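Please decode residue identities from the backbone states below.
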């Protein structure tokens, strides 16, 4: 896992919705930035899509930036390609850019391992949280709340220390080329 305190690795990727090239600077928020590695086909991502939208809508207005990145090899999962990414973003009305990491260089720079995988950077672009959205998983019966991410964002927003005990993400492994 990327060590806490790491400065956000830079990137420039195409947003599959707008067609624009976007960088970390373009998506960063004044209070912090959430970087999410997701994809279209993973049942774990499908399970959390609605909460991702709620989370971003709740915190964007308070100064947090959000971005989703798909790094899967589309040779293995054609449904994770840019055109399908745009359709998923439109279907769920993503309030954040959905970027395509064709070379997988960004996923490697972030040490992303699975989808979904979450990273929270503070106002100085230093990593303060990496891990799961919450304890909910497809078919485990635990309500989807975004609790782990919300607690980390709330701590950062309240100028409190983000808990160091962070559970890693669980999901589908990123398909590497």
């Amino acid at each position: 896992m990327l060590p806490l305190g790491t400065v956000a690795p830079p990137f420039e990727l195409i947003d599959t919705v707008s067609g624009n090239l976007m960088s970390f600077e373009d998506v960063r928020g004044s209070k912090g930035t959430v970087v999410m590695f997701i994809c279209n086909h993973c049942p774990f991502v499908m399970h959390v899509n609605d909460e991702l939208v709620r989370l971003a809508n709740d915190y964007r207005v308070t100064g947090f930036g959000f971005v989703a990145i798909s790094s899967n090899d589309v040779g293995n999962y054609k449904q994770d390609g840019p055109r399908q990414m745009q359709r998923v973003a439109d279907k769920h009305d993503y309030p954040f850019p959905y970027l395509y990491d064709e070379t997988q260089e960004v996923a490697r720079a972030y040490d992303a391992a699975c989808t979904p995988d979450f990273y929270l950077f503070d106002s100085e672009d230093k990593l303060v949280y990496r891990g799961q959205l919450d304890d909910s998983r497809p078919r485990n019966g635990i309500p989807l709340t975004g609790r782990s991410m919300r607690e980390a964002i709330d701590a950062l927003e309240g100028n409190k220390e983000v808990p160091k005990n962070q559970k890693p993400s669980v999901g589908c492994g990123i398909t590497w080329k």
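Observation: Residues 12-173 form a domain with the Glutaredoxin fold (CATH 3.40.30.10).
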